[in-house]
Specification:
215 residues, alpha+beta, Muramoyl-pentapeptide Carboxypeptidase, domain 2
Length: 215
Amino acid sequence: MKYDPVSFLAQSKLKDLGFYTGPLDGIWGPVSLAATTAWVLSQKPDIEPAPIVTDSTLDSRTISIIATLDPKAQAKIRNFMLLARPIAATFGCAYKLISGYRTWEQQAALYKACQNGGAHAVPAGYSMHNFKLAVDAGVFRITDGKYLDDGTNSEQAIAEKVHLACSRLAPQCGLMAGATWTGRSNDQPHYQIDIGHATPTDADRAKFKALGSLL
């Protein structure tokens, strides 16, 4: 692992708060993750047993989006978001979910828009959103609530840093982060349950059709 300035900033903030005792090396590892977890638990010690529908530490939109996911996926996404919140806060931002489960019809509409010059999208049945296993997060400035992902160039640069910092939590939470994908597949706001492969297969589509779940 190499030094990363975003990880260094998060470590520095956690150290100032008294939770990080490791070296300020800009390498996001177990010590950094433990410090983040300790910060979250200090804010609300009963985080783990708190049910999703009443957890006041997550915003209502995030809670409602988590509820659209496969029941077996909800805990992993929720835990990730609880860990990501303090990381985003070091940038003066809030991290919230903005998209979850999509029907195949909704995915088809996005793909059609992509073919007409819109944002990158894959056909229906080729996104983990269609299988209730994926979410997209958004970066919002804490002071005024502005959504930064589609803001000015400087605002988008902040959003990119937040996504990259939060994406480092994904593997420990059992998730894949779109920020780690390359080329056109790179999708910084995207997170999905790690089932061993990034793109749904024919077998996955058949299983979901038969059982309604891939988990």
